[in-house]
Request: fold
Amino acid sequence: MSERIKVLISEEDVDARISEIGAQISRDYAGKEVHLICVLKGGSFFMCELAKRITVPVSLDFMYVSSYGAGTESSGRIRIKKDLDEPVQGRDVLVVEDIVDSGRTLSCLLELLEERRPASLRLCTLLDKPERRVTDVKVDYTGFRIPDAFVVGYGLDYDQKYRNLPYIGVVEFDD
Ligand code: 5GP
Reply:
């Protein structure tokens, strides 16, 4: 089976939206420093582009988590594959994700980070698939709400491919 990628959100539209979110974050965190936590690997492209557009002081850290369970559905329990390098206690933390789908991974991650007592904890995602949500997750900044389709690009992969696409595409399969 081979696949084709159909453009869902163009590079220009993604760039423009990231600039808007960066400006919004800069306003919301005026006078503060924002500590960005990138959820690897998917969040990395978005975080770099976002960080460049934030005008308040920024620090960065990375976390790599996977959800337990086989298949494409996340199970709601996460395993930390790489933890943060620095404590988040007392910091204004903004988690940067590629996509919120069922919300299970994010709600576990946010709970775990909350226990570490940051001064504030917010979530920024490039993409949101609200139709798929099974767990309540408060998203503070959203790039685009998209329908229930499997998307790639801008950090998102299919079988580890297509993360480097500068746009968001939908995977279509030829049979
Ligand atoms: P959740 O726990 O919200 O169901 O899972 C979120 C994770 O599932 C995302 O971080 C991402 O790795 C993966 N995911 C969900 N939807 C998609 C999609 O459309 N494309 C890709 N490439 N990954 C997805």
